[in-house]
Amino acid sequence: MNKTLLLASALLIVGCGTPASYKDPNGRDLVVSLEKVNIQDFATAGSAMLQSMVQSKAFDRKDPPVLQLGQILNDTTNNFDTSLLLSKITMPLVNAGRIQLIESDPVASAARTATPGAKVPTPEFVLKGKILEDRANAGRTRQASYIFQLTLVDVRTSLAVWAKEETVTKAGSKNSVGF
Amino acid sequence: MKATPFIFAAALLVGCTSVIKTADKVERGLTPPDAINYVTTKADGTFVVQMNDTRIGNKIELLAARKSKTPGGFAVVQFDFRNGAFLGQNINVSFEWLSANGQVTERQDNWVPTLLEPGAIKTVTATALKAESAECRLRLISR
Predict the structure, then answer these.
(1) Pick from A5, A15, A47: which is nearest to B16 by CB?
(2) Which residues from B are below 8 Å from A61, CB to CB?
(3) What is the DSSP code string of A25-80?
(4) Among A12, A161, B29, B63, which is 20 to 30 Å from B1 by CA?
(5) Closest B-chain CA to A42
(6) Strand, helix or coil at B31?
(7) Sequence-separated (6 or more) residues with CB below 8 Å from residue A158
(8) Contact at 8 Å (CB) between A47 and B108?
(9) Contact flag A179-B19 (C-beta cutoff 8 Å)
């Protein structure tokens, strides 16, 4: 009898959990995963890179430079869309009128072809980059580092005019909630 | 003796959610709530500090707030902080930009975790994306 009750109690304990709720995606109580890049990691790296980029010489002018996106290589074990990082940089810049971003949309291209006198501005800069991963273990503690590298290349000279590396490191024995 | 497992089981059957909620309430009662602290630059070159969390206020010291402009005419603000405590402090920073008439023109939505070792001085730099952004309001919260 006692065994049955204890078993029932154990099953109930296993069943305990926090019900799902909506969270502020920019808040401080989001899930921190050791095995993947979290949404807040993209935001942290993206905002740091955005601030660094607007302080570069390429942005020391009043007229917005024409930018084209190059290749962003995902060299991690995670499968994610690299626009999660790029959007954190390009969206504020486009919306503030700080860059002219060339978009290669097929519908827009077809419409432009049919429009007399329309032409695409020549890109001045190409933004390219790479996302890397580094892992280390010590006993039960696991550490995951994600390295975000971006370079702004002047297309006339092929010289890098800005480059930035931002590393996000997380360590622990299991996933958690919060910073 | 036999009553103990019955009471234990009954307590669990009442529901895990209420147990979790009670524990959460107790924890919130014991821990002072996190509050955001603000540092806002002013047009005359000075700055205003709005301290809502005195725990962080006793440890993190604001040394300076410098305001300048980029060659393109965009505002740049630098805040210098010093950890005056004997332990490392984890703070989260973020900022908003205000126009000359006080309207919010742009904001950094996410918090940037920043570790300050004891005695360390950290400079936080913010550059405005919009020309109308004139003053910067730094938001600061402890972990």
Answers:
(1) A15
(2) 71-72
(3) TTSS--EE-SSS--HHHHHHHHHHHHHHHHTSGGG-SSSPPEEEEEEEEEESSS--
(4) A12
(5) B110
(6) coil
(7) none
(8) yes
(9) no
Tens digits of pLDDT across chain A (179 residues):
566 666 665 555 555 677 888 988 888 888 999 999 999 999 999 999 999 999 998 888 888 999 999 999 999 999 999 999 999 999 999 999 999 999 888 898 888 888 888 888 899 999 999 999 999 999 999 999 999 999 999 999 999 999 999 999 999 998 888 76
Bridge partners, A12 (sequence order) = none
Q: Which helix (H) or strand (E) holds A12?
A: helix A2-15
B108 to chain A: closest CA residue = A47
In 3D space, the residue among B93, B71, B35, B67 whose CA is nearest the CA of residue A48 turns out to be B93
Measured between alpha carbons, how far is B90 from B31 in angstroms, rounded to an integer?
A: 17
Predicted TM-score (pTM) of this structure: 0.81
Q: How far apart are CA B110 and CA B95, in angstroms?
A: 9
Residue with tokens 């019955």: B6
- Count of residues in chain B: 143
Q: How far apart are CA A100 and CA A67, in angstroms?
A: 6
